[in-house]
């Protein structure tokens, strides 16, 4: 009887010890929270559109601003609720108008807003991105939707090197991408697969650091919190278009916006 009693006690203790570990196991469908990234990107003056007194100026022009910084730093957040996520970025793609000050005064800059609004949602389970492009304001606004499947870069070189990033153990990999070698650090301690650069998404795991000579994405905080599922799912009323059609719509909206700015300056 004593043997059975001792055995029962041991089994009971083992069962009790195992419960916390089971309780801590969270599936992708249950995880809710956000990852905050600090993004540092080199500024390419040739890709900038700067309008001075109604005219677009390019590098080499005497009026082209000389105080443009070499890099730009901004924040990017990934909101996750179950199998869906949304990418929130600082304001990008804004047009800035520069007016030359008279009498040697410093140039005056004005933020003219953006030619369109763009939101990126992710189907983490289906491994695809859903982009919602909004052109126009208020009652004249029209939404377009395009879906693109995840396309991974090839020739990943996994290493045994690891380090902690934002509290998670990450493994290092290198990948040839955009004519150079990118370094990616990813963790499998989060229950979903994601990368802030879509092509640099691992087969399994969340990327917390990307490094290259031109840009860096570093996760500064990973937090679990309640995220409303409605906030990470795209509207269903948008007109469905192809990715190529969405690119054409984006380009046309930007061109129309620049033309309106220049015409406004001349009037």
UniProtKB/TrEMBL annotation:
<feature type="signal peptide">
    <location>
        <begin position="1"/>
        <end position="23"/>
    </location>
</feature>
<keyword id="KW-0732">Signal</keyword>
<dbReference type="InterPro" id="IPR005901">
    <property type="entry name" value="GLPGLI"/>
</dbReference>
<dbReference type="Pfam" id="PF22252">
    <property type="entry name" value="PNGase_F-II_N"/>
</dbReference>
<protein>
    <submittedName>
        <fullName>GLPGLI family protein</fullName>
    </submittedName>
</protein>
